[in-house]
Amino acid sequence: MSSQLPTPTRSFRRKLLLFGGLLMFWPMLRFLFHKVPRKPRIIEVSGTFQNDTVLTKQDFLIFQEDEQLWALSRNCTHLGCRINYIEKENYLECPCHQSRFSIQGQVLRGPADKPLPRYPVESTESPSTYLVTIS
Predict the structure, then answer these.
(1) pLDDT digits (tens, 9 = 90+) for 68-116
(2) Residue 99 phi, psi (nearest 5)
(3) What confidence tens digit (pLDDT) does each residue in 8-53 have?
(4) CA-to-CA separations, 42 to 22, 79, 117, in angstroms, rounded
(5) Contact 76/94 with Cβ under 8 angstroms?
(6) Which of 4, 25, 36, 133 has its CA 20 to 30 Å from the CA of residue 87?
(7) Could you give the CA distance from residue 125 to residue 128 in angstroms, rounded to a whole number?
(8) How far apart are CA 105 and CA 92, in angstroms?
């Protein structure tokens, strides 16, 4: 009785070589397409809240509710227009295409489909100074 082992086919050998080649180049591909994460910026902000609710700055809005502080970006997630706080109805609105956002940053009405970036805020020892961390 002679038992012969099956010989590998050409297509199997090609697939094996291709797989081995990809494994060899994987570290180089990861190196080439690696993105360095941005360092967070810490911004010191001074000001007082209007109606104990919102502090408006050039790039973000700081909200205070029940001793909790948070900041939202003022750039609309649709096309990047600067959003405004509508105090009477307590929401944020983009003047370009009327996207609306809650004060938590969630989309209430499109065309924007992503929520506003939210940044943590810390109060300092000074009563009207805050630290906003933008990552």
Answers:
(1) 888 898 888 888 889 988 888 888 888 888 899 988 889 888 788 899 9
(2) -65, 140
(3) 677 888 888 888 888 888 888 888 888 888 888 888 888 776 666 7
(4) 42, 25, 15
(5) yes
(6) 133
(7) 9
(8) 8
pTM score of the predicted model? 0.66
The label of the residue with tokens 């104990």 reads 52
Contact of 99 with 93, CB cutoff 8 Å:
yes
DSSP state of 89: T
The secondary structure of the chain in percent helix, strand, coil, rounded to multiples of 5, reads: 15, 35, 50
Q: Sign of the C-alpha dihedral, residues 90, 60, 121, 104? A: positive
Alpha-carbon span 50 to 109, nearest angstrom: 25
- 41-134, CATH topology level: Rieske Iron-sulfur Protein (2.102.10)
Report long-range pairs for 90-99 (Cβ below 8 Å, ≥24 apart).
90/53, 92/61, 92/116
